[in-house]
Write a structure and sequence with these properties.
By secondary structure, the protein is of the alpha+beta class. Helix content is 50%, strand content 18%. It folds into 2 domains: 171 residues, Jelly Rolls (Sandwich), CATH 2.60.120; 106 residues, Orthogonal Bundle (Arc Repressor Mutant, subunit A). The chain is built from 11 helices and 8 strands. Strands 2, 4, 5, 6, 7 and 8 form a 6-stranded antiparallel sheet that branches. α5 crosses α7. The mean pLDDT is 89.
Length: 289
Amino acid sequence: MNFPRLPIEKFDENGLLQAFYINRFSEHLKKYHSDINHPHKHDFYLTVFFEKGSGRHDIDFNAYSIQPNSVFFLQPEQIHHWEFEEEAEGWIFFHSEDFYKLYVTHFELYQWPFFQSRDSNPKLDIAGDQAALLQQRFAEMMSEYKENTKHSFLKIASLSQLIYADLARIYGEQTSSGLPKNNLYQDHFHRFIKLLDEHYMEHKNASFYASELAMTTKHLHRVCLSCAGKSTSQLIAERLILEAKRKLVSDSKSIQEIADDLGFENYPYFHLFFKKHAGETPKQFRERN
């Protein structure tokens, strides 16, 4: 079994704003339930605001509780799954990276703290007065989306920025991780994460990434600590563990074959590496999931 990857074109509602989508959450579930009822991933950035409901949201093998006035952020390729105990209502919107780049020229997506990296906390709880403002913004965005006039996309892009700005302020207060204080470090960190996604299977040492980024391993370590609160080695290990978990759950290959795919020299080393960083053996994780 492979996790389905849903493209944003699947949710094209009006034929014009193909790189953007917004809906009431209950309507979204009703229309796309068969596609999103099982673990899956996307090729876009997604934000969900729950006004009511309860349940569990699994994101990359971590479980988060769903409750009123909770917000979730998802980045491309993250595997997620909803399980509801009570009927949920709220808002959902998502967009492609290209949509954002086209209409927002002064701020990169990765500069928002919730989209900074895979390690960014994907959940935010907000207060009642903050929720009321958020509801207004979503309602206005929905109105523009339905109206679909010549300049609707410009207003939608502006409203998405306002929503992100409001949520980033709250996010910073709750996580001590507001907008980046050092934009140069943030740029370096973003480049490192992109390199890591491309090379983590064959390059597991910090020295390779430091060399590619034309900096010392010490400086890369400082960048990672400043932006993610983790060392370079930790981030490399976590990327490997995430991919190992994905393969153990979705791939029919043996654990030995998965270890080979991930570039480990032998199975015993992969076994020890996984147990050290995941807290259980690969076999235990596969059986439990």
